[in-house]
Amino acid sequence: MLDEAGLYRLLAWLSPSYPIGAFSYSHGLEYAIEAGLVRDRATLIIWLTHLLRHGAAWVDAVLLREAHAASADADKLDDLADLAAAWRGTSEMALESAQQGGSFLTITRAAWPHPGLEAFAARRKGRPLALPIALGLAGGLQQVPVAPLIAGYLHGFAANLVSAAVRIIPLGQTDGQKALAALAPVVAVLLPKVLAQPLDRLASAAPMLDWASMNHETQYTRLFRS
Question: CA torsion, points 192, 197, 203, 208, in degrees to nearest 10?
């Protein structure tokens, strides 16, 4: 069960005010909008639904679950961190994941200290760290249940991209919230699948995301880092 202390941690870690720099990344969305693939609320919902079901959000959610379960197993956790760091198709996606993961670990060690975080940081020093691994580890060490942690992560993933779309398309704030509300059933259906997915059968299927991300690297005008 998620008690008051766990809920407080969950809300703090996934708040837009948690300074991990998520606002500066669009996850390829900026180029998708430039190319006309995402142009309004309806197409934004389609794009984000696919990312949640078949893209990086899906992969991250399963890796988060594994990191949560392995929070007391140093060897397995290190293997998961290496796997998650490798699971990015472009340089900008790798930067997005590693920068946020490293920032999350640094901030959480300072604000929500735990010996397990310190030990992991010492082992991981100088190596890329994906955000879902850092979040899963923190949740496992500090008794935040895995199901709400995953649901919160998926919500935060979608909410950050909706916020980017509101600024780029531009999309009105109300339409942005309507899009986020439309994604709630997607997350609800996805959560039990994440909890049941075997790690050795994990895969993604979002080639348009990689295409958009690679094109974003050379996009003439850019507001976002990915």
Answer: 0
pTM: 0.96
Per-residue pLDDT of 121-158, as tens digits, reads: 999 998 999 999 999 999 999 999 999 999 999 999 99
User: Tell me, what amino acid is at 224?
Assistant: F
**Using H for helix, E for strand and C for coil, what is the string for 79-135?**
HHHHHHHHCCCCHHHHHHHHHHHHHHHHHHHHHCCCHHHHHHHHHHCCCCCCHHHHH
Residue written as token pair 């984000």: 48
Burial 53-92 (b: 16+ CB within 10 A, else e): bbbbbbbbbbbbbbbbbbbeeeeebbebbbbbbebbbbeb
CB atoms within 10 A of CB 203: 8
Enter the DSSP assignment of 66: H
Distance between CA 164 and CA 111 in Å, rounded?
Answer: 27
Q: Which residue has the tokens 């399963």?
A: 62
Per-residue pLDDT at 126: 87
Amino acid at residue number 70: A
